[in-house]
Specification:
ABC transporter involved in vitamin B12 uptake, BtuC, 295 residues, mainly alpha, two-stranded antiparallel ribbon
């Protein structure tokens, strides 16, 4: 049915799948950024490095502890999230009342340090990480071949994103978190430890990035610069969706991944810039982003 465009169906659906895969990582990373910015008011430029740390965590757990992918999917985000808690307690907590620029500069510097340390140890070339045996192979859908692991990544990321949205927007815990950003003194009067809540929120946002890193490890090679290559696009996704908007991060992440994938089919030359063009257009029409609230 695509003959009039000269595009084989396999190529179109293949790029659509690739777009959904990229969109899964865009959504999870931008969700973590949105959670941290929306609740802590910190622009976390370390997010790409923490995504990379999640992938390296899975690699280390396999190489040195012999733990499988499934263990790494649980343990690596917890370990990287714990490092995020340490960073928040030692550094970020002193910046909450200062201009956003201070947090951005600090987290940018931390990202360079983390990436530099791992690059000095492992070089710029990537380390392979095998797909778990349970997810090898694929399914023939007739119009395309769907690899099982790619399907798992899409389902897992969508499930985590929607669960995060539900907790923050529809539960009492989420209400406390949102209230703590507006009036921490009032929330503390109800006996809630606001500083601990903020610390755990940052740790959770970091764990989301690490979870995405573990999912990415079998698809992309585990490399020190894997986060640096992604974080600029993810920041563009957050800006388009609206800074601090949870649902905006999810919808925009998946949507822009699909648009980027389809652009590679119809106009490959623009595939590397289409997201930034969309960002510029959105900022011209709606500076707060598609789902952001105007102050």
């Amino acid at each position: 049915m695509f003959d009039f465009l000269g595009i084989p169906p396999q190529a179109l659906f293949g790029q659509l799948l690739l777009g959904l895969i990229n969109g899964s990582f865009y959504a999870m990373l931008s969700l973590g950024l949105a959670v941290i910015f929306g609740l802590l008011n910190i622009i976390n430029f370390t997010h790409g490095a923490q995504y990379m740390m999640g992938a390296f965590g899975a690699y280390f757990l396999l190489q040195y502890a012999g733990l499988s992918y499934w263990w790494a999917l649980v343990m690596s985000p917890l370990l990287v999230g714990a490092t995020g808690i340490v960073i928040e307690r030692l550094m970020l907590k002193h910046l909450y009342k200062l201009d956003h620029l201070y947090g951005l500069l600090l987290t940018f510097g931390l990202a360079l340090i983390i990436e530099g340390l791992l690059r000095n140890e492992y070089g710029s070339s990537g380390q392979p990480y095998r797909i778990p045996e349970q997810l090898l192979g694929g399914t023939n859908l007739g119009f395309m071949f769907l690899p099982n692991y790619r399907a798992w990544v899409i389902v897992a990321s969508l499930t985590v994103c929607l669960a995060t949205w539900y907790v923050i927007e529809r539960t009492k815990l989420g209400a406390y978190l949102r209230a703590a950003t507006e009036n921490p003194t009032l929330v503390q009067a109800f006996g809630i430890n606001v500083p601990r809540m903020i610390t755990l929120t940052y740790g959770f946002g970091v764990a989301l990035a690490a979870f995405a890193g573990v999912l990415a490890a079998p698809i992309y090679q585990v490399a020190p610069q894997m986060g640096a290559n992604l974080i600029i696009v993810v920041f563009a996704v957050v800006v388009i969706g609206g800074m601090g908007s949870i649902m905006g991060a999810i919808i925009t992440g998946f949507g822009l991944g699909v648009i980027e994938g389809l652009t590679k089919v119809f106009y490959p030359e623009a595939s590397n810039t289409v997201i930034f063009v969309i960002m510029a257009l959105v900022l011209l029409v709606k500076p707060a982003g598609l789902f952001g609230r105007t102050a």
